[in-house]
Amino acid sequence: MFGQPWAWKPLQDILQAYLEMIEEKKVQASTDEAYEEDIKPRLFPWRYHQYTHRDVVKATQALTRLLDAVEQKLPQPRETEYPASTRDVDIQLPYSQAILDEATIPANTFIRDFLSELPPRTLRFRYIAPGIILQSPAEFATQPWKEPLGREYGGHSVPFLLFRGDQWISLRCKPRYYPDPEDSLQGVPTGLYICPTGIESPATFGNSCRLLLPFNIGARHHARYSNGEQLQEETPWDETPKDTAHELYQPGSHSGFLERHEVQIHKILLNWAERVEAGDWEVNTDGVAGGIEKFEEADTLESWRKYQIPLAW
């Protein structure tokens, strides 16, 4: 580890990252020693928050930029050009509180606050990335996992499907720490998931997410984590690298700033907005074109950098 370039950072970069965390209230000084006794590892006097209002603002701004970018590139609508499967309903944002309740989205979580604070708008397209759709209210309410009742601490214990992929994968391709869904015979829908959260710690980010793809990436050895490591399945008991369906856009095993955690959602949304704005992804009448197979570009010599999130805390 210590021989790798991503294991070391200039001191000023580390201090700047810590300053940003304090300014954004991700970490705050706490005087409640009794509360801190229950937190492992012991971090007193610092208290880490799963998310902050600034996280919500960054995510809403990033999604707005992405939607604006797609909308600006939509061709002039012609009724015959719309695929019937996706044109039958316009998407109204934000989702109603009743829909969030039906999806079992807990109160005081990032995903609930994010979806509740989205600016009102009506969208006449569905695809916000190749093969990834903005769900209708009915689709969003039909989550692969439901949050169990009676949870004793904050956050949520299951992943939530935020943006649905148009393909499914078998259970063996999902992250191993994701539970099997109730309808396990059908498999798991692809798409962008908000990750489950645990107790507050430096590794707990309520706005963290994973993109689940219907194919593995990494066999060509071009795809990279943010820290420069080769993209591969995390298998500590097996030293043989394996390509993976759920590690694209992730920071990597070590960032040099904090413990390992999944990528924050606003970073992926900004990357997607950049792909649309730069013309890397084409747009048709139903939104971003190309199909989910477009993400295979992440493991090519020509395009891997376009799918790598800059390393940060």
Stretches where pLDDT is under 50 for at least 5 consecutive residues are none
Strand order of the largest sheet: 5-6-7-8-9
Question: What value does the average pLDDT take?
Answer: 84
- Major sheet description: 5 strands, antiparallel
What are its keywords?
23% helix, alpha+beta, 313 residues
Helices and strands in order, then pairings?
Layout: H1 11-23, E1 27-29, H2 33-36, E2 46-48, H3 53-72, H4 84-87, E3 91-93, H5 97-102, H6 110-116, E4 121-123, E5 127-129, E6 132-134, H7 137-141, E7 160-169, E8 188-194, E9 209-212, H8 265-277, E10 283-284, E11 287-288
Antiparallel strand pairs: 1-2, 3-4, 5-6, 6-7, 7-8, 8-9, 10-11
Helix pairs in contact: 3-6, 3-8
